[in-house]
């Protein structure tokens, strides 16, 4: 995974795990690499990894069992929340970028509708 | 914890450090950054007890540096090992002085760094010497690890090996590491705290992650900014 | 791993010995060569000198001792100076040991050089004068205190070496206080110290001679006193060198 040095790295670690959850690459009960393994593989400060893992534990995203490892413990609700939060972030980015292009909400909605129609047609052609 | 309180030092007419104040937090990896001549080496040597402040005070766990030498593992920029020794002899020699010498770690790192005990220090390549220095310094469970330009003048593959060895060996929260370098990009993702020095003064200091969150830029960018300001 | 001051000192001693092997070999070789040359000359039938058994023992012994003191003195500059020129001073100065151990182990190594050199030369000499030994033994048993005299004399030479090495260390360490003029300052301090101690010695010996009048004048007594005075002076100088190294020398 490539890290963006201009943003807090521990956040990016958490985001990465969340993305994996959202994409279904990681599921409830899956084991994730230990902090040490993660730090060595990603070649980043073990303290940073520790901070990310601790944060994920606080968020009840993962649970560490002594001597066994760290496991995903997301509930359905939490997964839904994570998806929602990610969607919010993407939406926020979309709105800001569109606004900077000069699009207002009405135009954005119009664009979305026309895009939706176009894709429906493309799907029918397949 | 290592603390510098109003420390000043000059060599002849050159001011190396000018009333600097900073702390190196326990259990963290701190990057000591700055251009050449900023005072990084001088600071590190002061912690290792190799020179003394003209005024002000440097304390290691509240005590004078010279008393704390047994707790400090110092990796100087210079090639400081006996050229006639083999790696094994150098390890044997080092281990007689430190109760925290870890033979298992030594053997593990020896393999990891692709070194052989029979290699003669004076005869191996520069990269191998750098790895040997690291090996001998890090094969200890020393609470404080001081690294003065551990990556300078070394080929990129060896640099990666060295960084990997540091990460592999690091015990979170237990070990305090101070790395001085002007190659910030190399250690960007390695440091918890940063101190930027220039002309013997602290230009900036703080937590790496916080600096990233506040400024939305990498440490490399932050340093370039801090020094562009000065050189204008 | 357990460490103790003794282990650390021995570690330093072993390290310095290992570094000094070539020098020890030189001292021993030179001593033997001198012996051999002397005996060869003296045992020539054309030689005008009638080899008095005792002379056969004493003269080469003095020559050997002279050289065996001179060579380690030269070595002392290399043994300590090398730490700086190789940058290994960064290693030893960051070790958790006092300067006393660092300098002490080097002193011991140089003494060892001396002892090895003189022993080897002595044994070679004995072999060379094999046929004269019975005569010497007869002579020795006729003299009381002979053995102790010789021993004290030998110890005195060793003490004198310690004294010179202490000055060598002191001058080198003071020299290291300056970045640019080390060599000059080292030479200056070396000769200055010799001069000052010489002057002090002249002064005190004029006092002493009245105090220990009787005892002082016996050979045994004077040798013992001389030994003590030299060792005392050496200790003071050595302590000064250690103090400056511990407190003032910087990298």
How would you summarize this macromolecular structure in one to three sentences?
The complex is a heterotrimer of chains A (126), B (232) and C (251). Chain B is an alpha/beta fold.
Structure classification of chain B = alpha/beta
**Overall number of strands of chain B:** 9
Low-confidence stretches of chain B: none
What sort of overall outline of chain A do the alpha carbons produce when their principal axes are compared? elongated
**Largest β-sheet summary of chain B:** 6 strands, mixed
Give the mean pLDDT of chain B. 91
The CA-CA distance between the termini of chain B, in Å, is: 36 Å
Describe the structure.
Chain A is mostly helical and 126 residues long. Chain A is built from five helices and three strands; from the N terminus they run αβααββαα. Chain A has helices at residues 9-22, 35-42, 46-58, 76-101, 105-125, and strands at residues 31-32, 62-65, 69-72. A three-stranded antiparallel β-sheet of chain A has the order 1-3-2. In chain A, a hairpin with a 3-residue loop joins strand 2 and strand 3 (69-72). Chain A is elongated, with a radius of gyration of 19 Å. In chain A, 21% of the residues are buried. In chain B, 34% of the residues lie in helices and 26% in strands. In chain B, the strands form two sheets. A six-stranded mixed β-sheet of chain B has the order 5-6-7-3-8-9, sandwiched between helices. In chain B, strands 2-1-4 form a three-stranded antiparallel β-sheet, with helices on one face. In chain B, helix 3 runs antiparallel to helix 4 and helix 4 (126-138) packs parallel to helix 5 (156-169). The radius of gyration of chain B is 18 Å and the shape is globular. The model of chain B has no long low-confidence stretch (mean pLDDT 91). With 251 residues, chain C is mostly helical. Helices cover 84% and strands 0% of the residues of chain C. The longest helix of chain C has 38 residues, at 5-42. Chain C is globular and about 60 Å long. The chains are: A mainly alpha (126), B alpha/beta (232), C mainly alpha (251). Chains in contact: A-B, B-C. At the B-C interface, loops of B face helix 1 and helix 3 of C.
């Amino acid at each position: 995974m490539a890290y963006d040095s201009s943003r807090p790295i521990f956040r990016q670690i958490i985001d990465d795990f969340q993305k994996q959850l959202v994409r279904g690459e990681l599921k409830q009960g899956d084991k994730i690499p230990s902090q040490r393994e993660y730090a060595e593989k990603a070649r980043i400060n073990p303290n940073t990894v520790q901070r990310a893992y601790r944060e994920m534990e606080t968020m009840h995203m993962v649970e560490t069992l002594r001597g066994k490892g760290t496991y995903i413990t997301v509930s359905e609700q939490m997964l839904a929340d994570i998806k929602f939060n990610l969607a919010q972030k993407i939406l926020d980015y979309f709105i800001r970028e569109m606004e900077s292009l000069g699009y207002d909400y009405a135009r954005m909605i119009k664009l979305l509708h026309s895009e939706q129609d176009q894709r429906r047609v493309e799907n029918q052609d397949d | 914890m290592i603390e510098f309180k109003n420390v000043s030092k000059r060599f002849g007419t050159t001011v190396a450090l000018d009333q600097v104040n900073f702390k190196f937090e326990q259990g963290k990896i701190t990057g000591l950054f700055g251009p050449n001549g900023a005072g990084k080496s001088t600071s590190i040597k002061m912690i290792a007890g190799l020179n003394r402040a003209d005024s002000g005070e440097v304390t290691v766990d509240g005590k004078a540096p010279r008393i704390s030498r047994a707790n400090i593992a110092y990796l100087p920029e210079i090639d400081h090992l006996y050229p006639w020794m083999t790696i094994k002899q150098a390890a044997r020699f080092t281990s007689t002085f430190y109760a925290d010498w870890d033979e298992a770690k030594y053997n593990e790192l020896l393999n990891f760094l692709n070194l052989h005990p029979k290699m003669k220090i004076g005869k191996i390549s520069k990269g191998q010497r750098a790895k040997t220095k690291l090996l001998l310094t890090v094969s200890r469970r020393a609470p404080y690890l001081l690294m003065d330009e551990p990556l300078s003048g070394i080929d990129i593959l060896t640099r990666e090996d060295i960084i990997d060895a540091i990460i592999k060996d690091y015990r979170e929260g237990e070990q305090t590491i101070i790395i001085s370098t002007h190659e910030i990009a190399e250690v960007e993702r390695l440091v918890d705290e940063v101190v930027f020095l220039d002309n013997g003064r602290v230009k900036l200091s703080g937590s790496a992650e916080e600096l990233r969150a506040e400024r939305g830029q990498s440490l490399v960018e932050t340093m370039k900014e801090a020094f562009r300001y000065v050189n204008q | 791993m357990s460490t103790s001051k003794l282990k650390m000192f021995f570690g330093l001693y072993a390290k310095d010995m290992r570094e000094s092997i070539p020098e020890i070999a030189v001292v021993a070789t030179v001593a033997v060569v001198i012996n051999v040359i002397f005996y060869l000359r003296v045992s020539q039938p054309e030689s005008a000198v009638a080899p008095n058994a005792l002379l056969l023992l004493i003269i080469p012994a003095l020559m050997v001792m002279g050289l065996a003191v001179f060579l380690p003195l030269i070595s002392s500059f290399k043994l300590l100076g090398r730490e700086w020129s190789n940058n290994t001073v960064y290693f030893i100065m960051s070790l958790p040991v006092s300067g006393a151990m660092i300098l002490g182990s080097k002193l011991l190594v140089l003494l060892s050089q001396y002892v090895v050199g003189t022993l080897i030369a002595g044994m070679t000499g004995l072999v060379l004068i094999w046929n004269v030994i019975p005569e010497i033994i007869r002579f020795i048993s006729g003299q009381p205190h002979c053995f102790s005299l010789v021993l004290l004399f030998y110890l005195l030479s060793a003490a004198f070496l310690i004294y010179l090495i202490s000055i060598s260390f002191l001058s080198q360490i003071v020299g290291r206080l300056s970045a640019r003029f080390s060599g000059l300052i080292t030479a200056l301090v070396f000769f200055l110290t010799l001069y000052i101690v010489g002057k002090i010695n002249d002064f005190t010996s004029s006092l002493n001679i009245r105090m220990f009048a009787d005892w002082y004048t016996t050979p045994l007594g004077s040798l013992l006193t001389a030994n003590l005075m030299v060792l005392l002076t050496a200790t003071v100088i050595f302590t000064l060198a250690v103090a400056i190294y511990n407190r003032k020398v910087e990298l």
